[in-house]
Amino acid sequence: MTAAAFGALADTPSSGRRRAWMRSEEARGLALISPTFLYALALLFLPVLIVIAYSFWTQDYLDIDRTFTLENYRQALTEPIYRDLFIRSLWISLTVSIVTVVFSYPIAWFISFHGGVHKNLWLFLVTVPCWTSYLLRVMSWKVILGYGGVMNTGLISMGLIDKPLTSLLYNSNAVVITLVHSWAAFAILPIYVSLQKIDRTLIEAARDLGDSRFKAFLRITLPLSLPGIISAFLIVMIPTVGDYVTPRLVGGKDGVMIATAIQAQFGKGANWPLGAALSVTTMVLVSLTAAAVVLALKFTVRRIR
Fold it and tell me: Which of 1, 14, 88, 283 is 20 to 30 A from 44, comparing alpha carbons?
């Protein structure tokens, strides 16, 4: 092909559009984020693929048999011990998420609507507990709820009980209390951001049209803050269902969750395929539960309005 033909080909409309797109903001943005995206993909997506692949294999003593099988999933879904751990983990995670959002919403609402010039100070105070180690925060609740801890000592000094309660620690309730405290700040912040974006004139208009404060909240504030509520719920639910440290320290035998079984299979059990199957099953169950909760929240808010 001659040089003239090459020049004619380069001057076609499609090549001109291509050059224009390469000089656009969109192309420069994609070129900027592409390395980061590929790096994140390699660190996040590939490990998940490896875990999924392991879940279809079997452990043959110290070797991995790469013959395709669904035996690991059969055990994960039919063995009573794993089924009970799945149910308990989802129940604790849902309870923690609901309680955390319910307690966090009033705090975020107060900071957003009544924080005034001290909003940044309030947000600063909310994040103070996160300065300490997660492990230390869990251990602090072990001290508070223990047999000779702060809670029992206070109840005895007020004359409400005669001897220390043994039911405060090493059960699912202790796990819920500890997780709610540990994740409260992570729920307050997204709800606060969502509340900050609400146009205050909409609330004033609702009040001018005869709505009470509570009705204006239900019709304006609550629906418009739903994205923050959903974000807070997911931020709390997804990590807590796989929490390992908290059940280990304050849960006892009644607070054991699925993460303990997964760790046991990857550790002393030396059965990585079964541990991978438990992990994948947990991810699927959490995704389905989260989707169902999000749809239920949207439906509930729509009915309230």
Answer: 88
